[in-house]
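Quick one: structure tokens for this chain, please?
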Amino acid sequence: MTEELPPVLDRAVRVASAAFAIVFALVVASAVATPVADLAVRLGLVADGGNGWQLLRTLGQFAGFLVAAAGYLAITDQRDLLRIARPSLREVGIVVGAGIALLALQYGSLFVLREVGLSTGQNRAVVPAGDPVGYYAAMVAVSLLVVGPVEEVLFRGVVQGGLRRAFDAAPAILLASLLFGLIHFSGITGTPAERWAYVGVVVVLGCVLGLLYERTENVLVPGLAHGVYNAAIYAVLLANAL
């Protein structure tokens, strides 16, 4: 895409392109998520503002992310950015281990923050609009099969993959993880300090996912690890709600 540009300009273009990919994904997701959920309400399939509506919005949002990622790769003629393959048995083991490690890293980060008198905000996605048991049970599956894999296609496959063509591994992973963290800011409730603390934790988790992609060259590995991590959080919430 920018092979003929000087290195400094090439890097600037790659960062701008990564930011554009994220904005494009947000625009497409907003055009899909709420309209699909509202249509289901008008058809009498779900109650307005209920768990079903919330779940459909989530599915619509990530469908939008996936469509936007595919569209971006096609428009920019960079389909080879996305490295994807069926996970090997070794990679399945990495997925499970990484999911557990991410969960441990989150709880460790929260412990450290509490020790210095800080706490994180709350992600709106973990707040049910109705019966918590049904919502959390559904989100275990949605997180594993949709949210984790699709976010990694966008942030590791498209964003980190593009940045990697102009940067070494460490800065590419860090930049992609910073963008990954910032995208969560609007979905967090709490004081500004609590919201930024949440973003900081997400950036750290993003770096681990970015390293997984760099080492395995298979976006399904961080995607499924991300899904396992998210699903485990909802499984804990489900157990507490029972």
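Helices lie at 7-42, 51-75, 89-115, 132-164, 169-182, 192-216, 220-241.
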